[in-house]
Design goal:
The chain is an alpha+beta fold. It is built from 21 helices and 21 strands. Helix content is 37%, strand content 18%. It is globular.
Length: 624
């Protein structure tokens, strides 16, 4: 066995898989170490990818050459665009996946990468010399050398599962936890804290009465995540909605005295935006019911994920409450919901490349940085894998700005503001969300990934073809003019003002009531042009042209704002600057700046406790 690598990735969850794939595809010799070779990118919680802002992240991962979108497209059982009734900045793709196929597809893709090796083992400590990584030591006693190590341990570090008054050591139910590594890192000067997350009960779909529930079908014309030619979904499985009620709530309350959360046995902070069912009925006591989603776990299983019923109450209480939910009167449980506590490392201890500020060439990604969600983990893994490879090859780090990607927003939030609760991405976290749409992730990011060598020729060609499509479409709609008699009947039907002289297609398309397919269906010349000139993914090109036309003013304003604020990102700060010597700064600013060590004035301005007057002091100092 080879005992020396360029990069070792510890943990094969969503972050670890993306990290290993990126680094190996860039040319590094990589070893992926996992405690279980059967659970690559395991969907530990809900069997779904994407969602509000998360869907944009998956498309960004794909545009950068990652695999999450490709795997999802090959394994999904339902697809929806969420928030379609709102503006395009809010449109978010989401897919239900077959979680068994999802993990298997990940393994298949990883095993096809030439520079990637695998080992089933548990890393218990790091090999360090002069505060620089030299490798890892495993539970089986092996010392494996490496120039860089990426930690993506998820919830496994000193993980403890809670179900009512029962608790036991585990990284995921039915799997061992990992001991030793946190203590090793603490001794090296890296701070750790505790967090908590949870997962709902899994139930037997054969015991459900779906007639008492509301069916939720996928989109009639399902799209996909990857910009590559991945398969389109032909058949879909439905999800269903049901609700709790006052009787359910009263039963759950009888278990509060045995709840590890209410009794103080859980010290870690849980996710604000995905609370347990007991937390919901405690915090929102005035609500008579809460929505629950019945989500199938795959094509060929009757196992159901009960989204919205996360719980750490005793199993008998969970079961009694379930029996009072419409459609679940005869329910059978596969396994109860549970809470899990685990170690994480406050992310302010990382650089913008996700490299430790304490140990050189040590990178961290995923839930151990305080995030929650497969998508947030995967994008961190991708960036850590890229940056570990780049540093070994003496190249500058790959950094995405807040105006360039949700991934840039996420990493900047983590390393600048930190987090004391599981961080989840929302569209509201992004200042420039009209620029960061799901439809244009390839245009934004694929050229950047191409510069570092992570893009295949197929991906480059598809983007070039799409951009050519968009360019030709714009030329046509800006030049071709429509006579009043050709279009007025449609305009009246759509309740918008008719025209009394020729206007361009672009002028018509800029009206909120008129959509590009209306023009294609009613203007023969335009329909013929589209049929003969659009080469690939016609719907994607048409959609982007429509968005760019209708929201041209908003997009222009946001670009101007991003450029103005972006000038602060160009004012670099020496990483060795001793802020304590700048006595004109407030004491809080000196403390925070010395801890975070921001790279730029822009980053410094986003640190909690650093005021505008402190930023003015820094700008004056840099000017000198």
């Amino acid at each position: 066995m080879l005992l020396e690598y360029d990069i070792i990735v510890v943990g094969a969850g969503h972050a670890g898989c993306e990290a290993a794939a990126a680094a190996a595809n860039l040319g590094s010799k990589v070893l992926l170490i996992s405690m279980s070779m059967s659970n690559f990118a395991q969907m530990s919680c809900n069997p779904a990818m994407g969602g509000i802002a998360k869907g944009q992240i998956v498309r960004e991962i794909d545009a950068l050459g990652g695999y999450s979108g490709i795997v999802t497209d090959n394994t999904m059982i339902q697809f929806k665009i969420l928030n379609k009734s709102k503006g395009p900045a809010m449109w978010s793709p989401r897919a239900q996946s077959d979680r068994f196929l999802f993990s298997a597809k990940w393994r298949e893709l990883l095993e096809s990468i030439e520079n990637l090796d695998f080992r089933q083992d548990n890393v218990v400590s790091l090999l360090i010399k002069n505060k620089k990584i030299e490798g890892v030591k495993t539970e089986l006693g092996l010392e494996i050398k490496a120039k860089s190590v990426i930690l993506t341990n998820g919830t496994f570090l000193n993980g403890i599962i809670h179900i009512g008054e029962k608790n036991f050591k585990s990284g995921r139910i039915g799997e061992m936890h990992s001991e030793g590594l946190t203590q090793n890192l603490n001794k090296l000067g890296i701070e750790s804290k505790r967090m908590k997350t949870g997962t709902p009960v899994r139930i037997d779909g054969r015991s459900i009465d779906y007639s008492k529930m509301i069916e939720q079908k996928g989109d009639e014309e399902p799209k996909k995540f990857s910009f590559l030619r991945t398969p389109k979904l032909q058949n879909q499985r439905s999800c269903y909605i049901t609700y709790t009620n006052s009787e359910v709530h009263e039963i759950l309350k009888t278990g509060f005295n045995k709840s590890p959360m209410f009794e103080g046995r859980i010290r870690g902070v849980g996710p604000r935006y995905c609370p347990s069912i007991e937390d919901k009925i405690n915090r929102f006591a005035d609500k008579e019911n809460h929505q629950l989603f019945i989500e199938p776990e795959g094509w060929n299983t009757c196992e159901i994920y009960l989204n919205g019923f996360s719980s750490s109450l005793p199993e008998e209480i969970q079961y009694k409450a379930l029996l009072k939910i419409p459609g679940l009167e005869k329910v059978k449980i596969f396994r109860p919901g549970y809470a899990i506590e685990y170690d994480y490392f406050p992310p302010e201890q990382l650089s913008v490349a996700l490299e430790s500020k304490v140990i050189e060439n040590l990178y961290m990604a995923g839930q151990i940085n305080g995030t929650t969600g497969y998508e947030e983990a995967a994008c961190q893994g991708l960036m850590a894998g890229i940056n570990a490879h780049l540093k070994l090859n003496k190249k500058p780090p790959f950094v995405l700005k807040r105006s360039e990607a949700y991934i840039g927003v996420l990493i900047d939030d983590l390393i600048t503001k930190g987090t004391n609760e599981p961080y989840r991405m929302f569209t509201s976290r992004a200042e420039y969300r009209i620029l960061l749409r799901q439809d244009n992730a390839d245009s934004r990011l694929t050229p950047k990934a191409n510069e570092i060598g992570l893009v295949t020729s197929e991906r480059k060609n598809l983007l070039n073809e799409k951009q050519n499509n968009i360019s030709e479409l714009f030329k046509f709609i800006e030049k071709f003019k429509v006579e009043p008699e050709q279009i007025n009947a449609l305009l009246i039907e759509k309740e918008t003002s008719p025209i009394d002289q020729k206007v361009t297609l672009k002028q018509l398309l800029s009206r909120p009531q008129i959509f590009i397919n209306d023009l294609i269906n009613n203007i023969d010349v335009f329909r013929d042009f589209v049929k003969s000139n659009i080469i690939i993914e016609k719907e994607d090109s048409l959609e982007e042209v429509e968005i760019l036309t209708k929201y041209e003013g908003y997009i222009s304003k946001e670009q101007d704002l991003a450029e103005k604020i972006g000038r602060l990102e160009e004012l670099n700060i020496n990483e060795n600057l001793d802020y304590y010597k700048l006595t004109s700064l407030s004491s809080e600013a000196r403390e925070k700046l010395n801890k975070i060590k921001p790279r730029t004035i822009g980053q410094a301005s986003r640190i909690s406790g650093v005021s505008p007057s402190d930023i003015s002091v820094l700008i004056v100092y840099l000017g000198r």
